[in-house]
Amino acid sequence: MARLVLSDASPLIGLSFVDGLEWLPRLFGTVGIPEEVAREVLPGQERPGESAIAAALDAGWLCLREGPRSSIPLPELDEGEAACIRMALGHDEPALVLMDERMGRALALEAGIRVAGTAAVIGMARRQGLIPSARAVFERLHQSEFRIAADVIRTVLDRVGESEGEQGRGAGR
């Protein structure tokens, strides 16, 4: 398991829509966010999820993370994604970065950083018994403006035993 877990904004926002932030400390312990991500998720404009993210920071398991950073140029990424990757590369310990954006994930993987997105976290929560149904969580998430590709959802549902063919066995809706 990675000793350093960092999150970009998107997984925090998506999980806040489905009351899933509470899964993170149970799955990963402490989750760090760079200042750039904090500015994005806590703009002080009462956006959806903002109060839940602020409460997670107050609880202490979500924390502002400082420390060494790589100077690798990442001009194609936004500030939060780039900060997470640079921070992960700047530490000697194994890192996991929670990130949804395709380009950021590709660059992180290319640099040898483990990544997981919102969908994977939902799958982990299901496998750990934190939620009874990943399908139900994806349906709730779909009711918000947050989107995950259908093929990604299918893959996660297959991995947790909730594929279309298994709905009748108690794993579905």
Kindly provide the name of the CATH class of the largest domain: Alpha Beta
Instruction: Report how far the terminal alpha carbons are from each other.
Output: 31 Å
Q: Which residues form runs of ≥5 with pLDDT under 50?
A: 166-173
* Biggest sheet: strand arrangement: 1-4-5
Given the C-alpha coordinates, what overall shape results? globular
Total of helices: 9
Structural class: mainly alpha
User: How many independent structural domains?
Assistant: 2
SSE succession:
EHHEHHEHEHEHHH
CATH architecture of the largest domain: 3-Layer(aba) Sandwich
**Tally of DSSP β-strands:** 5
| Rounded Rg | 16 Å
Helix content: 40-55%
Major beta sheet summary: 3 strands, parallel
In percent, how much strand structure appears in the residues? 5-15%
The CATH homologous superfamily of the largest domain corresponds to: 5'-nuclease
Reported by name, the CATH topology of the largest domain is: Rossmann fold
Mean pLDDT over all positions: 90
Protein name: DNA-binding protein
Keywords: DNA-binding
GO molecular function, one term: DNA binding
